[in-house]
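Predict the holo structure. Ligand: adenosine-5'-diphosphate.
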Amino acid sequence: MANNARFDLMNMSISRKKVEIENISNKVSDYFGCNVFGKNTIEKYVSYSIFQKYIDSIEKNEKMDREVAAQIAQGMKQWAIEKGVKSYTHWFQPLTGLTAEKHDSFFMPDNDGNAIEYFGASNLIQQEPDASSFPNGGIRQTFEARGYTAWDPTSPAFIIETESVKTLCIPTIFISYTGETLDYKAPLLKSIHALEKAVLPVVNYFDKSATKITATLGWEQEYFLIDEALFYARPDLVHTGRTLIGAIPAKGQQLEDHYFGAIPERMLDYMADLEKECHKLGIPVRTRHNEVAPSQFECAPMFEECNVAVDHNQLLMDVMERVAKKHKLRVLFHEKPFKGVNGSGKHNNWSMSTNTGKNLLSPGKTPKNNLLFLTSFINVIAAAANYADLIRASIASASNDHRLGANEAPPAIISVFIGDALTKVLKDIENTVSDGKQDEIVTEDIKLNIHNSIPEILLDNTDRNRTSPFAFTGNKFEIRAVGSSANCAANLIVVNTIVANQFKKFKEDVENLVKNEGEKREAAIIRILKKYIVESKHILFEGDNYSKEWEMEAAKRGLNNVKTTPHALDFFLEKKNMDVFIENGVFSAREIEARQEILNHNYLLKVQIEGRLIGEMAVNYVIPAAVRYQNELLTNIKLQKDLGMSESSYQGTFELVQSISNHINNLKSFVDQMIENRKKCNKIEHASDKAKAYCETVLPLFDDIRYHSDKLEQFVDNTLWTLPKYREILYIK
Ligand code: ADP
Ligand code: MG
């Protein structure tokens, strides 16, 4: 065999030894949350009255006393030190899509030169990360230096353990000195608050005892797991998270034998280790299984309150990477790491519940409860119908563009699936409720009719449409077009805000009918719901979202089908869309503009980096291997000629040489063209225009480059090819 490092890497990958997993206990309940400073732990470290004040301020969303913060800081420090922690960090979620931290030590020298451990209220509440290089969309000029982080007491602090260091992490929001939000958490908290405020009065129509509404989220995370050695041998995976070139293997996922197949042992070890780490951090992961593509997996937790669930997903992604390194594996969160192989998504399972334990999207046992269910359900549909474009914009990213509409994931057209049973219920309401004033008997009849036609249990898997981007799945909506690498909050900020807005509008509409027409409230509710059903029809779709027919049908219905990020991001700046954020107190106009700019900037940087890399790989890896092989072929032809053999004996070899030349020439010329186009793009000033130019003139050339590169991969002698191939990366045991 030729002396090729690729073969050594493969052998290394195959012969990996088992990683021993520390066995702390066989029972998860023994260690679940042991690294979390949650309510149960706080209670043990502060006085009773302080604890009560802390709980009070969280539940009522009120400002916390300095004294309470000081006591919590004291308790947090003591708990952390007992656990062997020496330093702490404010943990935040900047718009890069990753999490960020800046570590500080508890240690301080005192006046006498002795060491003390100090952590006071101000350390807990606020920190200034030197964050001038985080994206800020022009809000915070770099020379202004810093924004600051501020404690989010609604999400518990936790300890991150690496092999030798333990760090206390404090969830925080990240804001500029002028008060604008520069992260995902601050607007998420504002959107949750807007939702709680708007939904509660409507719920109180039906249930006076509810005093608080909570948005709930259960995410599902898809990912690829590959061997570390092979990962490092692919510069595209290392620097962009996806393969920019690479021929599809003979055996792809045609057989779908990976799906629900046995999880390979090495991966299973990884997952067991990952789950243990998650459980210590209080992340309630429960399910694990194979996905459709080889080496693709999914994990999902029990759902939680939205803010904590988002933190847990961000934390999960950190933990996944750390545990993977221990197992000499690498996790790929990219939405489309391999061409011709299914990509990865993240499903946001979203609902709302009351503090009395009722899930608002779960049909009830009585006609009254069912009217509450229908009110919630129809208002969510109406919100999606009115702001479908914002939902589209919320899931836009350079990496997710490769997945949306690729016949494996929901398309870029937003529609809502509700299933047969509820389609019928909505039709019945539409047909039985009149537009004029209802009399009492009719109202009661309709209520009973609704009740009898909603099956109590809708959680039937057969009635699911896996192609829908926004599907009702029995007791929650499942938003399936979110990218696997995304922060769940990007989408949830929009969902919470538009639903909050819709509930506000609903309450106004109902109260206007009561006031102006003297309608009884229940009758008014039913009439308004009917009106919304009629107005929102265009968003409902039960068919195959991947089909061409749907694209045509959606166009007829006036639904947008915006396939690329820079164009989808334009939706943020439309007046109606800006207003919904501003009116619900989630973003200021300046924040929306800044965010749109940052997201465009992120997009163009990603495409720019990919462009540089694909060019380099073509010139440094692909062409040299092809030329080497071509030389061998030419030597062979020359030898045959020298020996006086007939032309027909080297005919095939000669044709190979010609094909290789042809692909090399094309490859080179597409790379040159792409470089030229990049230069032109770089002269454009405005982020959004520049992103569009990259999208339209640089990105399409990747396909041409790739085509010729992948052809060469198939022609060139396997022993001369230096990049690990798909079949090697994707089929580790
Ligand atoms: P699948 O889509 O794979 O069939 P499941 O029905 O098991 O999944 O649920 C997927 C996710 O939905 C889980 O994370 C679960 O916790 C979450 N989920 C269930 N009920 C709710 C709810 N009321 N609010 C938010 N998420 C929920
Ligand atoms: Mg799902």
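The mean pLDDT is 91. Residues 293 and 342 are 6 Å apart (CA to CA).
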